[in-house]
Amino acid sequence: MLKGFRSHDLCVLLQPRAMNVDLEMDATLQVDISDALSERDKVKFTVHTKSTLPNFKQNEFSVVRQHEEFIWLHDSFIENEDYAGYIIPPAPPRPDFDASREKLQKLGEGEGSMTKEEFTKMKQELEAEYLAIFKKTVAMHEVFLCRVAAHPVLRKDLNFHVFLEYNQDLSVRGKNKKEKLEDFFKNVVKSADGVLVAGVKDVDDFFEHEKTFLLEYHNRVKDASAKCDRMIRSHKNAADDMNRIASSLYTLGTQDSMDLCKFFLKVSELFDKTRKVEARVAADEDLKLADLLKYYLRESQAAKDLLYRRSRALVDYENANKGLDKARAKNRDVLQAETSQQLCCHKFEKISESAKQELIDFKTRRVAAFRKNLVELAELELKHAKGNLQLLQSCVGVLNSNT
Amino acid sequence: PKQDSLMDDDPEDLFAGATEEVSLDSPERDVLLSDGPSPAITPITPPTSVIAPRIGHAHDDMFTHSSFDEIEEEEGGDSFDVHISVSDPEKVGDGMNAYMAYKVSTKTSLSVFKQRDFSVKRRFSDFLGLHSKLASKYLHIGYIVPPAPEKSIVGMTKVKVGKEDQSSNEFVEKRRSALERYLMRTVKHPILLKDPDVLQFLENSELPRAVNTQALSSAGILRMVNKAADAVNKMTIKMNESDAWFEEKQQHFENLDVQLRKLHASVESLVCHRKELSVNTAQFAKSAAMLGNSEDHTALSRALSQLAEVEEKIDQLHQDQANADFYLFSELLGDYVRLITAGGSGDLELYFYFIFFRIRGVFDHRIKTWQKWQDSQVLLLKKREAEAKLQFTNKPDKLQQAKDEIKELEGKVQQGERDFEQISKIIRKEVGRFEKERVKDFKTIIVKYLESLVQTQQQLIKYWEAFLPEAKAIS
């Protein structure tokens, strides 16, 4: 059980255009995840809302939600035509404790092959890892809700309010096979569409630039995210090795000749401490760098989706134009064609207008998030390196004075 | 047909077939169970080689009390001042006959050397030859002779065939480093330092090519030891103080072996992961650079490029650290694991086997000769009684012969006892010296290793301190 956990680090990933203004009657809406419980195969999030909006029955209330319900909410945004012109906040990734559970299991199996101290140490390590993953998933879910709550239009969404307030199970069982297959084909069509549409050069320079930029950026963020993960994993592996080295040195220290005993024990202590620092470095890199990249991978995808939707609207508009010309030429169903063309035009212009603003906001958010995280990354790396240095120097000093 | 041995020959051992058979009649065996005093060992060095007499006395005297004590005193007076480096590996020749020649440079102020600063060219088989000679001369007397670096058929073949790639370069570097450590360990031994073969190795510009470098391989020693063990086990041996001390030392080294292996494995794993980290960091750096290129906010783009540069420098740092992990920490442990390891090619365990049975052999030989003497005394008495009856129908020659034989026997027994004490003394000293050196080795090298870690952190701090303002400059 996690009480009062806040996702400070990830909150900056969202940067509301305006702070708390923008709603009618200057009402406020604050959402957070105040508690979370990890059960065998699911996580239960306690979504806590504070709001002065009139449509809520109370000013402050909480409900319990599971991951599927977040996905339902996200999908409802995607499927809503009215939101075609917005960057839909990316859905939080599914809580995944498989790797961590597997490691804990392996540890249990290998209990016989290590000393009691080693076992306890590794168990603590893995439990800490489990906890870290848990905290992360809570943060990801919270960020999603905060993004929605910060968005001037999405925050008014009815489904969102139901999600926040309805204290019964939303009964949004996960999609069954048929629906999943439908989704799959939809995505295939969309990307094929996207490829087709992406080939058409845009009249508007702004969007043409954005398209080129986003396509390249997204791919590079993907690559950077993957490589960052690999780098951090190696770091963790090295820290694990140091743990084992510390244990071995400790055993040697209790067994060996008098002269070396104290020496080994001191070095063992050093490795133990320095390993903890290394593990923290890896964890901080994970939080500041890896998570940042992962998040912007998802956001840049959402931005790309927006562009595709706009392109599709453009295609529809152009088709409607052609349809109108044809109708005028044949002098048949002209009114119908005109209405259709006007609708498409209106839709396209509406999307374009909001998309422009969304993309500008996206850039602002992105730059701010990177700045904050890179600065914090550098500060943490410095802090840890200095800490490590002090540990090492003091140990070397002691060892040298003893010989 | 090969004599059976407990240990299979090293599969990589090129000379497996050509190993000098250690037969029952071999000189080594005689040395173990000889009747006489500790024999002067005929050096394997061929007579044609030039050996300028270094010390005032010949070989034999080295093993008597007096010169041993003398050497002890010399030890105290002369501060250890020999530094050897192995460098400049150079490929000589082509194809399968090619070999690597290493420059062996010595810097010293000790009087036992002809010069203060000199170097020679040696190849790997020269090192093996040196070790072989030293082992055959000193092991059975009770001195711990440092083991030579291992052969590697695969590694050498790559080098011979001419593959100038990273793995063969690493192999040569590993070998160079191991050869250097081997020579330093050898000269640190006060007795070995003054051995003519060692001096010749370091000083002579030409060395006769060592052929039978397997003459006294570990496998050979083990075979020899087992033959001796079989013979000695046939008698019931009384436990005495020496045996208890040996058993305790043996146990100590066995425990040490287990722990060192574990530690060695963990350090090897660390080396591996650090190398991985270096590679992954380099890849991430490239990726971050690409990301920086596509970022259209100028200041952020610049900061990302800087991040990429920092990561690139850090990757090099990891690489260097991995090398330090390896060459300092891992190789140190590897050397000692090889020295101590049970059942493998380790020498220390075999050394103990060897000496243990040597001592037992001498001890039991003492019992044997004593018994023999007792028996001849009884025989003499009987003879005397018999002859008393036939007074003066005597055979004075026979009587005198008996008396002479007895006197000789008494002498042998006394010598045997002296040998026994001598070898015990040497062994205790050797083990003490070995442990002392091990302690020093571990301490020195581990501290050096920690200092390398210090440097790494200092560099890291520099890099991140340079990056921080860049990150803050994003607006």
Automatic annotation (TrEMBL), chain A:
Keyword field: Protein transport, Transport
Every PX domain range: 23-170
One MF annotation (Gene Ontology) recorded for this entry: phosphatidylinositol binding
Claim: Transport is one of the keywords in the record: yes
Domain of life where this protein originates: Eukaryota
InterPro entries, sorted: AH/BAR_dom_sf, PX_dom, PX_dom_sf, PX_SNX6, SNX5/SNX6/SNX32, Vps5_C
Nucleus keyword on record: no
Biological processes annotated in GO: protein transport; retrograde transport, endosome to Golgi
GO CC annotations on file: cytosol; endosome
Family (UniProt): Belongs to the sorting nexin family.
Role of this protein: Involved in several stages of intracellular trafficking.
Protein name per Swiss-Prot or TrEMBL: Sorting nexin
UniProtKB/TrEMBL annotation, chain B:
Ranges for domain PX: 80-209
Coiled-coil residue spans: 399-426
PROSITE patterns: PX
Principal location: other
Composition bias, Low complexity: 37-46
Keywords: Acetylation, Cell projection, Coiled coil, Endosome, Membrane, Phosphoprotein, Protein transport, Transport
Disordered: annotated span: 1-46
Molecular function via GO: phosphatidylinositol binding
Skewed-composition ranges (Acidic residues): 1-13
Domain of life: Eukaryota
A biological process term (GO) from this entry: protein transport
Membrane topology: Peripheral membrane protein
GO CC annotations, alphabetized: cytosol; early endosome membrane; lamellipodium
Localization, UniProt: Cell projection, Lamellipodium; Early endosome membrane
Keyword Protein transport: yes
Function, as annotated: Involved in several stages of intracellular trafficking. Interacts with membranes containing phosphatidylinositol 3-phosphate (PtdIns(3P)) or phosphatidylinositol 3,5-bisphosphate (PtdIns(3,5)P2). Acts in part as component of the retromer membrane-deforming SNX-BAR subcomplex. The SNX-BAR retromer mediates retrograde transport of cargo proteins from endosomes to the trans-Golgi network (TGN) and is involved in endosome-to-plasma membrane transport for cargo protein recycling.
UniProt record similarity statement: Belongs to the sorting nexin family.
Protein name: Sorting nexin-2
Organism: Nothobranchius furzeri
High-level lineage: Eukaryota, Metazoa, Chordata, Craniata, Vertebrata
